[in-house]
Design brief:
Strand content: 15-25%
Number of helices: 13
Helix content: 25-40%
Distance between the termini: 50 Å
Number of domains: 2
Structural class: alpha/beta
CATH architecture of the largest domain: 3-Layer(aba) Sandwich
Shape: globular
Largest sheet: 8 strands, mixed
Radius of gyration: 21 Å
């Protein structure tokens, strides 16, 4: 039996950071959520604004509104020393290696000698993030990759480095399963680990199929959703939830990192994705991406005009009705035979 964590800190109040903090609070932990200090006025104004917006997310990120009382908002300028008293520090800042390395250097001067430190990176090398830190620090460091939204998606990838203490890994496996309700998978420190390596591949296949004119967005989401045992959001709705900027960044980092992958060409960034990001259409966070909701109607992007249009009727012939088969194994067998 391991000793449970009572306190934690999440560094970075972005889409994932706020939700991870919320899920830890749901599990009963007292959580510090820190981000950059505002350049003028109240230094906490940035993190407070972002957190208020996160509380409006649907589905909700907290079990109850009272759970928010366990989350303490702060900024790096005024509250960084608070990290000296926490059991677990999770880094969830921008996916840039040099910035993460600088943060780890600052952390090493503050955190307790028995605190666990982890990164929520979705694809950077976990080992590289702490390559310049002491061995004692590296022993307590690993990747803890949550999936968006962390309250609802069960998977938690643990990514130890060559220096991570085996006891730390076992403790985090126990914590993830027993306290956070996660299905824990230990992954190797390879580009994009397991979930995102498969997920990005599947997403890119869908985007390429759409841009090549084989299927509509709605057809691809139907074919890659509950029909095949995946979430009903399918490919493009999931991409919007994740954030198209995040998807683009992960794909851009992955392609040069896998020169020997036989399917490497599929990871090339489609111009459609790059253009949407350049236009600031980042998905759910900007309320428009591959989809946009207007007056209660869901519209999808037309890359020919860059306007949003009403979905076209979908006709799958003898595939219609397969979703009514409740047993996934039987459904997949029938789908394969079709």
């Amino acid at each position: 039996m391991f000793k449970p964590f009572r306190t934690a800190a999440v560094l970075g109040a972005g889409v994932m950071g706020t939700q991870i903090a919320a899920h830890l609070a749901n599990a009963g932990l007292t959580v510090y959520l820190l981000d950059l200090a505002a350049s003028s006025g109240d230094k906490n104004s940035l993190v407070e604004t972002v957190f208020k917006q996160a509380l409006k997310r649907s589905p909700p990120i907290l079990f109850t509104t009272k759970t928010a009382e366990r989350i303490i908002l702060g900024n790096y300028d005024e509250h960084f020393d608070c990290l000296a008293g926490v059991d677990w520090v999770i880094e969830a800042i921008v996916e840039k290696l040099d910035i993460k390395q600088q943060l780890m250097a600052r952390l090493e001067r503050v955190v307790r000698s028995d605190a666990v430190i982890s990164t929520n990176t979705s694809g950077l090398s976990v080992e590289a993030i702490v390559s310049e830190r002491s061995f004692q620090f590296r022993q307590r460091f690993l990747g803890t990759h949550f999936f968006n939204p962390p309250r609802y998606l069960k998977l938690l990838e643990l990514v130890p480095t060559n220096d991570t203490d085996a006891a730390v890994v076992e403790r985090m496996k126990w914590l993830g399963r027993m306290h956070l309700g996660k299905g824990v998978v230990v992954a190797k420190d390879t580009p994009n680990f397991i979930g995102n390596r498969i997920g990005i591949f599947a997403t890119m296949l869908g985007i390429h199929a759409f841009t090549e004119g084989h299927y509509t967005i709605e057809e691809i989401d139907t074919l890659t959703g509950t029909l095949v045992g995946r979430p009903k959001s399918g490919t493009f709705r999931t991409a919007d939830v994740v954030g198209l900027d995040t998807l683009l960044y992960v794909a851009q980092n992955l392609y040069p990192a896998i020169p020997e992958d036989e399917a490497r060409s599929h990871f090339q960034v489609p111009p459609l994705l790059q253009t949407l990001v350049d236009m600031g259409r980042l998905g759910a966070k900007t309320k428009e991406g591959f989809y946009k909701k207007v007056d209660g109607e869901i519209l999808s992007i037309n890359p020919g005009t860059w306007e949003y249009e009403t979905a076209k009727p979908m006709h799958f012939g003898n595939l219609d009705g397969l979703n009514h088969e409740p047993d996934l194994r039987k459904r997949l067998r029938k789908l394969y035979k079709k």
